[in-house]
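Need the bound structure for uridine-5'-diphosphate-glucuronic acid, inputs here:
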Amino acid sequence: MRKIAIVGTGYVGLVTGVCLAEIGHQVTCIDNNVDKIATLLDGKSPIYEPGLEKLIHRNMAEKRLEFTTNHREAFFKVEVIYLAVGTPQNRDGSANLDCIFQAAREISEHVSGEIVVVVKSTVPVGTNDKIKQSIEENALSPLKVDVVSNPEFLREGHAIYDTFHGDRIVIGSSSKRAAAIIAEINEPFNIPIIHTDVRSAEMIKYASNAFLATKISFINEISTICEKVGANIEDVAYGMGQDSRIGSQFLKAGIGYGGSCFPKDTKALVQIAGNVKHTFDLLESVIRINNHQQLKLVEKALLRFGSLKGMRVAILGLAFKPNTDDVREAASIVLVERLLEEGGRITVYDPVAMDNARKILMNEVNYADSLREALYQADMALIVTEWDEIKEFPLEEFEKLMATPIIFDGRNCYRLEDIEQYAIEYHSIGRAMIK
Ligand code: UGA
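Answer from helper R.:
Posting the output first, comments after.
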């Protein structure tokens, strides 16, 4: 058992803290956001993540998990401090490291003796060395710091599962002692550990996300060609994925990737490459393809109708993927903005992301309380997120509720054979149109 402090209670920090407590460590999570900490002290999760609240309760009750806004208190007698603060993108696409260096200053002020700092936040290659330098230079009392890069690979919506069942844990360190401490902390997860130098660990994170984003843009490009040559993207992706060198995951064509990671990390890697005078052509194309793909449903609707002026559009799903309330960089946002420009009258519905969407879309759209309400009298429905509630929605309801049952499905939620049983016009991604 180790005494650990975690700075930042966002997705990564909170899940890491809760899971480290679950495997027996003594964990204090710190955040500057007073409201967030108050919510957590109340035993509630500030983010929507299946299974998280249960673990918060259990570990608080068993006194392994604490929350505070006070760094001095949190860092008292800790052996390891995890940094899991946000690294949002700057205007030029580079990662903003203000929160990282703010956290480093807090360590300099409140810690003395010896400390291992584990960086979970996604930071450009070379940043961990700068963090070490910053902490040591600003230290108020003698301090020996080892900085370990330990990138995070969890997915929103599956965060707990991924933490306990990840494919690998990467530990990048120049200190054998620090690497051994972090390996020991993670031992109960029973996940293979890969030891590297610090910079390679930092790069593994960016390269992994960039590669997954590339897979998605690749399959989306293939889906566009499939539509034109009369092939079926689902069969094509399945046939490709059976080759174990390719793998079947992340070959689901749709309206592109969103969220707080892929869009930000791909742009940051282009920047990182640019800083060392390398043009990352491939990744730039991946990003361009994705930007285009997010608007695919409007493009299809415009092709179908000529103009969307005055048309009633139901947007089904707003989150960037199912099982999350996150709408950051979601296709829904750019789609709605574009539809508004085209003069559409929009009603949106999402099972959990309505509050977050309201903060962005404000009063530009109507908000429905149910799928049925969103579809009522609509001229077309655009499916943006493949929530189970949408996939399981009875198809006859589209017929009954809509003014004209025309669906543009950005996530291929339905089987073409099923759609054919109804008087629905159905446009999906990389598959034949059904009329
Ligand atoms: C992603 C990675 O999967 C995690 O490994 C990583 O830790 C995380 O970013 C991060 O850097 O923190 P996440 O953003 O939660 O996780 O979501 P994913 O499940 O990877 O989905 C990302 C986007 O890709 C979604 O918009 C999803 O709809 C889209 N996607 C995914 C596709 O369009 N097709 C696919 O086949 C898979």
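Comments: The radius of gyration is 24 Å. Residues 152-156, 209, 212, 216, 250-252, 254, 257-259, 261-262, 265, 320-321 surround uridine-5'-diphosphate-glucuronic acid (CB under 6 Å).
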